[in-house]
Structures are given as structure tokens and as C-alpha cells.
Recover the amino acids of this structure.
């Protein structure tokens, strides 16, 4: 590799990071502008306004809701990962074997989600001799189905609670945008599955790449079962967020969150620092409560930190399986 090629490759990376930080700054600016306006309307400083908002919260009840849900999420998330790995990589893998490494991956995900997936890949390579590219294909499959699970629940919410979407269409025509997005996503999924089932473009070589192996082997039942196995987490999230918003004195119904929460989770997945996209979307969807962005920061921060604490409990066993056993063998 020549010395001149290194800067050329770094330029797109720096440019992408710069754009993502600028977009995040714009999101925070818009949220802070709304908070400042709300505080001024109440005759308070921004700090006083936020302290009043947080001071009314029953924190004991909030912790009592969040902690069991975090454990529940971990168990369901591990189950989905275990089943996908059994389908496409290691049929002999036991559920209890996936728990330590899945929990420990939450710690690494504090730094970077891809690092957490790398730990899963390393574990399967050392314990089950599964090639890294094939494990990556399973992670890609799970990532795609995570997106479509969120879209599916938003569609269900849109059908039953379309009035909420109309009411929220103040800044953007969400009542038009969302149906178009959902229809486009559905068409894409049909084309995607048809392509990997060999119904067209059979001679295109990309289908045979190792990092797409899970999609070649996946049947319709695998797509459906993955969404089904993931569903308890999202349903639980809608219930938990409905209760938590009430504890923060924000009026929001189960129907509103069934429509909006999957979209907020999708926005959180955007490559923006501090989940700025989700922060802005919260504020846009609940314009009467500009402080709801602060609520979202508390929810997300607690969730990732508590999951990481679960990972700490399993870390000794995960380290033993990843390193001690590999060294002895």
C-alpha cells in the first residue's frame, strides 16, 4: 500500500464523520431552541425548567419498570440471536451458551455496536469453528429483520391509529410519507427474498458471497419466525415507554407509541452521535412536550448502562470461553 493511498481512503471517512456531527449539532440546536422557548414562556431559565420537569418524576417507580424490562430484553434478544445462529451457523449451540457472550457484547457496544458483533463472531469461530464471514451474514440477517420488525409494528399502528399520525403531521406530512416508506420497504423485501431464492438474476455472483450466506439459506419461515421471536421486546418497549412517559407527566397513549416508537428506534439507528436523530424525532412527534427529548436521553442512557451491567455479570465466563479455553486447546 502506498503512502499516498492512505489519505485518499481517510478523506471519505473524515467527511462522513464531519457531516454526521454537523447533523447531530443541528438536531441538538433545534431541540434546545424549543426547550428555551418553552422555558421562556414559563418565565424560567432552561436549567430551572428542566429541573422542574425531572423533579416531578417518581424515580423509584421508574427504576421498578426499567430494570425488569432490561432483563426481559436481554433474554429475548439472546433467544433471537441463538436461534439465528443455530439456523445458519452452529446447530449444536445451546441457549445457555449464547448468554455470556451476548451479555458481554453489550459492554463492547457502549463503544461501538460493530465491536459487540465482532465479539460474537470471535466466540463462534473459537467455540464452533464457524467462519467469520458466515457469522457476519447472520448478524446482517438479524439487522435487516430488526428494521423490518420496527416497520411492521409501525404499519399496524398506522392502520389502527392513523389519527395520531395526522395530528403529528405539523412539521412534515407524515400521513403521506409513512405509507410511501412502508410500501417501498415491503416491495424491497419481496425483491430481496426473490433474488436470494434465485427467481431472477441467477447468474449474478454477489448472491454467492460468504457474507450473504444466511440470506441464501433463509426460507420464508426464518424471516417470519425472527420477527415473531423479536416481537415481545418491541411490545414490551411500547408498554414500558407508555408507563415511563406517564411517570414523566407526558401524555401519550399506547396507540401513539405503537405508531411512533418503532420510528424513533429507527431514527436512533442512524449514524449520528448521541442518537440525535431520535432526540429530534421525539420533540417533533410530541410538540406539546419539548422536554421529551430529555426523557429520551434518560431512557436510552439507563438502558445501555444497565445492559452493560448485565454483561459485567457474565464477563468472567465469557472471557474464559473466549480466551482461557482457546489457550488450553
Amino acid at each position: 500500500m502506498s503512502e499516498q493511498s492512505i489519505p485518499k481512503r481517510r478523506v471519505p471517512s473524515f467527511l462522513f464523520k464531519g457531516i454526521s456531527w454537523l447533523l447531530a449539532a443541528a438536531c441538538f440546536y433545534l431541540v434546545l431552541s424549543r426547550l428555551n422557548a418553552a422555558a421562556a414562556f414559563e418565565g424560567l431559565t432552561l436549567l430551572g425548567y428542566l429541573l422542574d420537569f425531572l423533579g416531578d418524576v417518581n424515580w423509584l417507580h421508574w427504576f421498578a419498570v426499567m430494570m425488569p424490562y432490561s432483563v426481559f430484553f436481554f433474554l429475548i434478544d439472546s433467544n433471537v440471536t441463538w436461534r439465528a445462529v443455530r439456523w445458519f451457523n452452529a446447530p449444536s449451540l445451546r441457549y445457555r451458551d449464547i448468554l455470556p457472550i451476548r451479555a458481554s457484547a453489550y459492554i463492547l457496544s457502549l463503544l461501538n455496536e460493530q465491536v459487540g458483533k465482532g465479539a460474537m463472531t470471535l466466540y463462534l469461530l473459537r467455540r464452533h469453528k464457524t467462519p467469520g464471514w458466515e457469522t457476519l451474514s447472520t448478524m446482517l440477517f438479524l439487522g435487516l429483520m430488526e428494521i423490518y420488525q420496527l416497520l411492521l409494528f409501525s404499519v399496524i399502528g398506522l392502520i389502527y391509529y392513523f389519527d395520531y399520525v395526522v395530528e403529528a403531521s405539523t412539521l412534515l406530512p407524515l400521513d403521506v410519507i409513512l405509507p410511501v416508506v412502508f410500501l417501498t420497504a415491503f416491495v424491497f423485501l419481496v425483491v430481496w427474498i426473490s433474488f436470494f431464492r434465485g427467481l431472477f438474476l441467477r447468474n449474478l455472483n454477489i448472491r454467492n458471497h460468504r457474507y450473504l450466506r444466511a440470506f441464501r439459506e433463509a426460507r420464508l419461515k426464518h424471516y417470519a419466525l425472527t420477527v415473531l421471536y423479536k416481537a415481545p421486546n418491541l411490545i414490551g418497549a411500547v408498554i414500558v415507554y407508555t408507563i415511563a412517559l406517564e411517570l414523566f407527566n407526558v401524555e401519550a397513549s399506547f396507540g401513539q407509541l405503537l405508531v411512533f416508537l418503532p420510528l424513533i428506534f429507527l431514527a436512533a439507528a442512524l449514524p449520528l452521535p448521541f442518537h440525535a436523530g431520535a432526540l429530534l424525532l421525539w420533540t417533533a412527534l410530541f410538540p406539546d412536550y419539548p422536554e421529551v427529548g430529555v426523557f429520551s436521553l434518560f431512557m436510552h442512557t439507563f438502558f445501555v448502562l444497565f445492559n452493560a451491567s448485565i454483561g459485567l455479570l457474565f464477563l468472567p465466563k465469557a472471557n474464559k470461553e473466549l480466551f482461557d479455553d482457546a489457550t488450553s486447546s
Notes: Residues 36 and 85 are 48 Å apart (CA to CA).
